[in-house]
Amino acid sequence: MKVILFLIIGYVMGALPNGVWIGKYFKGIDIREHGSKNSGATNSYRVLGPKYGLMVLAADALKGFLPPFLASQFGVTGNWLILIGMAAIIGHILSFFLNFKGGKGVATSLGVFLFLIPKVTLALLVIFIIVVYATRYISLGSIIAAILLPVLTFISPLNYGIEKWPMMVMTIIIAIFVVYKHKTNIERLLKGTENKFKLK
Predict the structure, then answer these.
(1) Residue span of the signal peptide, if any (predicted)?
(2) Pick from 29, 4, 52: which is nearest to 200 by CA?
(3) Residue 41 — left, alpha, or beta (φ > 0 → left; ψ -120 to 50 → alpha)?
(4) Contact 160, 116 (CB under 8 A)
(5) Where are the extended beta strands (E) located within 76-159?
(6) Where do the domains of the chain lie?
(7) Residue 181 has pLDDT above 90, yes or no
(8) Is the dihedral of CA 106, 14, 183, 167 positive or negative?
(9) Within 10 A of 22 (CB to CB), how many other CB atoms are there?
(10) What average pLDDT does this structure show over 139-146?
(11) Alpha-carbon distance 125 to 131, whole Å?
């Protein structure tokens, strides 16, 4: 029952559409009608500006971090934490608040993995920042980080009683999904028409 409760909590927290709510509350606009029409942090940054974009990023990462963290505080360990983290990511991607639509899951995955595999996540964050700084493409940074996620996870020790192969399966699924969700970005990158990240 405890695990089921936290799976539900994970999904509901993950489903919170922070970008949509912050955009409507502070700017009076629905970001799903602007820019890339995505409800995540990147489009929030472009449409709402850096202050609110970073607010969405932090909120989306936090809703990924909190479910497995809270579950661990109530004695949940091992591979159940992986499933609770996945529930949060699925909630973000298929939010019942948004008719089972949502963002690409990058920021929420960041929060989940920051708890489950912090050293790997911090290393990927550094790689992401370097790629974005060098190319000005957030999408490229996200894609490269996603591809490297299972690679670095494979060579890293795990905590909380989590087994290696279930964690590998999760990271591979997330990597494939993130790359798939960026398919239109990949097409634009190949054509040279992808939007570049600009500091405002």
Answers:
(1) none
(2) 52
(3) alpha
(4) yes
(5) none
(6) 2-191
(7) no
(8) positive
(9) 18
(10) 94
(11) 10
62: nearest Cα among 129, 127, 13, 4: 13
What gap in Å lies between CA 76 and CA 53, rounded to an integer?
33
* DSSP-H helix ranges across 41-117: 41-48, 50-73, 80-93, 106-116
CA 4, CA 105: separation in Å to the nearest integer? 22
198: left (phi over 0), alpha (psi -120 to 50) or beta: beta
Long-range CB contact pairs, 47-50, < 8 A, 24+: 47/23, 48/22, 48/23, 49/200, 50/199, 50/200
Q: Token match 């607010």: residue?
A: 55
Give the residue from 100, 64, 95, 94 showing the smallest Cα distance to 82: 64
Per-residue pLDDT reduced to its tens digit, 33-81 = 998 888 888 899 889 999 999 999 999 999 999 999 999 999 999 999 9
Indicate whether 105 pLDDT > 90.
Answer: no
pTM over 0.85: yes
CA 156 → CA 116, 118, 121, 176, distances in Å?
12, 10, 11, 20
Residues in the chain: 200
- Which pLDDT band holds residue 150 (cuts at 50, 70, 90)? very high
